[in-house]
């Protein structure tokens, strides 16, 4: 699948979804829950209750396509603070790769004494 990244919108269903749903069930959720047209060509993201499985539904001019990913360990996010209901294409790619956008941590914090020693040398 090749998308022009500037034109694709990604909509996230913020309620947990039964992952047994396929094309028809997910397209009905797009219409009823997200109030969007599933034939628009945009991506629609659904996650199960445990946030260990994700499905992405989109229409590519010839029919529906469905991506699925299941994590062996960890979760996509915590349901107490899910991401926004709309994200950009880059954020979706990072989410599928396991990278959290809003979270930045430094791996190594230098002590103040080390910094002073470096400055005085």
UniProtKB/TrEMBL annotation:
Domain of life: Bacteria
InterPro entries: Transposase_IS66_Orf2 (IPR008878)
Pfam families: TnpB_IS66 (PF05717)
Protein name per UniProt: Transposase
Organism whose genome encodes this protein: Acidithiobacillus caldus
């Amino acid at each position: 699948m090749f998308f022009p990244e500037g034109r694709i919108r990604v909509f996230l269903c913020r309620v947990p979804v039964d992952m047994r749903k396929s094309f028809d069930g997910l397209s009905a959720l797009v219409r009823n829950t997200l109030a969007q047209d599933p034939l628009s060509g945009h991506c629609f993201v659904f996650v199960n209750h445990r946030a260990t499985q994700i499905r992405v539904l989109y229409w590519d001019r010839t029919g529906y396509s469905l991506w699925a990913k299941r994590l062996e360990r960890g979760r996509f996010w915590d349901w107490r603070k899910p991401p926004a209901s709309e994200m950009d294409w880059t954020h979706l790619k990072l989410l599928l790769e396991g990278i959290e956008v809003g979270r930045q941590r430094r791996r190594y914090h230098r002590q103040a004494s080390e910094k002073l020693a470096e400055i005085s040398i």
